[in-house]
Amino acid sequence: MSEAGHKFLAKLGKKRLRPGGKRATDWLIAEGGFSKEKRILEVACNRGTTAIELAQRFGCKITAVDMDAQALEVAKKS
C-alpha cells in the first residue's frame, strides 16, 4: 500500500495496518520472546503503535523507521 493509502486509512480512524490482521500480530507478540534485554527494529512502523505497545509491555529497546515523516512525528508524541 502506498503512503497515500496509509493516510487515507488514518482519516477513516484506522490506527494500525496489520498484514495478517490482529490475529497474526497477537501471535507474533505472544511467540516473539520479547523482554527488556531485546532490541527490536520495526520497519514501516507508520505511527509506531505496535512498537509503542512492545516498549510499554516488555520494556524492549525499539528502533522504528518509516518513510512517512508525519506518521513518525505522531509516533514520537505517543
UniProtKB/TrEMBL annotation:
* Keyword match Transport: no
Q: Which UniProt keywords apply?
A: Methyltransferase, Transferase
What the entry lists under SUPFAM superfamilies is as follows: S-adenosyl-L-methionine-dependent methyltransferases
**Gene3D superfamilies for this protein:** Vaccinia Virus protein VP39 (3.40.50.150)
GO biological process per UniProt: methylation
Q: What is this protein called?
A: Methyltransferase domain-containing protein
GO molecular function per UniProt: methyltransferase activity
The Methyltransferase domain sits at 40-77
Q: Which domain of life is it from?
A: Bacteria
Q: Name one Pfam family in it.
A: Methyltransf_25
